[in-house]
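Dear support,

Our group has been running a series of protein-ligand predictions, and this particular one with fe (ii) ion is the one our PI (initials K.S.) wants archived with full inputs and outputs. We had some confusion internally about which version of the output was final, so please treat the block below as the authoritative record. The input we submitted was:
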Amino acid sequence: MENTHDFHSPATNLIGIGAIKDLPLELMPYKLSKALIVTDKNIIKLGYVETVEKILKSLFISYDIFDGILHPDCTISFVEDALTYFKKRLNILKRSYHIIISIGGGTNHDCAKAVAIIATNGGSIEDYEGYEKMKNPALPVISINTTSGSGSEISNFAIIEDESRKVKMTIGDSKMMPIISVNDPMFMQTMPPDVTASSGIDVLTHSIEGFVSTEASPITDSLALKSIKLVFKYLKRAYENGNDLEAREQMMFASVMAGMVFNNAGLGYVHSMSHQLGALYNEIHGTCNGILLPHVFEFNSPSIPDERIFNINEIIGLEAETKKDAVNNIKHSIQNLCEDIKLPDHLSSIGFNENDLEFMSKNALKDICSITNPRKGTLTDIMDIFKAAI
Ligand SMILES: [Fe+2]
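Confirmed final output from the archive:
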């Protein structure tokens, strides 16, 4: 019986306090002469881009900086702005970029990946919505991460918001996997508490959804369980004191592991539904996940093997006699953690409008994250989960 579990990750992952110092050595063999940095003005203000500029200068790599990304999500218009800049510079320089370097969080990495796709495949980014739609490998991307959350720096997925259709497109293709990722907590200390909170819950969601996914494997299982443990131990600390480097470092590890989990095991309905809330209300991704995760977990629980439920329960440090108790424990633990880090626990607090329920539920079922959800839901089921979270 065929049962394969391919594992994709960047060829090189520089991880830990001071990891950025290893980047020059890793870049040297590529013999690069021209790079495009994709970032935003805030990251420049924090001095992180300057650190990378120094590295590029030391290697005689010339570069341009596109800093037109606004937050919180990567939209088609950011991608088009970056592409316009990219093409204009090419006309002036008559020389191609060898590489794109994204500096920032998931929004910046996703934008960089989208530019890298179009640079070698042409067309517009909507052409690549879905899975494995690219013909050619994307332009190589190096992703230097400044948040602990999205996992985009080590994934072959990009989430791009289509403002006109009010949906978030998921683009998945191993041909756009970054070649080098950098996760250095020194770049994460300035993450404000609200970003620490929402991106930390995104990490937890990646791990839990990946652990119960239909594509989970023993490799992703071990990464997911360790990541869940670290989030419950360190997220509150990182939220309460951004300068707690140990907590930052452990959350960074949790985020990297969770990124590897979802990239290889897939996600589920929390992400499918959360993408709709983000597209319609511009609400922060991790915040939406935190509200939905307990309800989706409860919905999925009949289809999750008992052992997996007890595994999660145990790794959080809880005891339960029955599966039902374990599900309740997990639900309440997620809700308590969200409360500790001041995230909302109801959709009503993020401006949810019941008139949008059917539209969002239909689109959630079409989202590619739904493919690996452990329990197949109907439109009514998805609507009921949204209602339970109101
Ligand atoms: Fe996510």
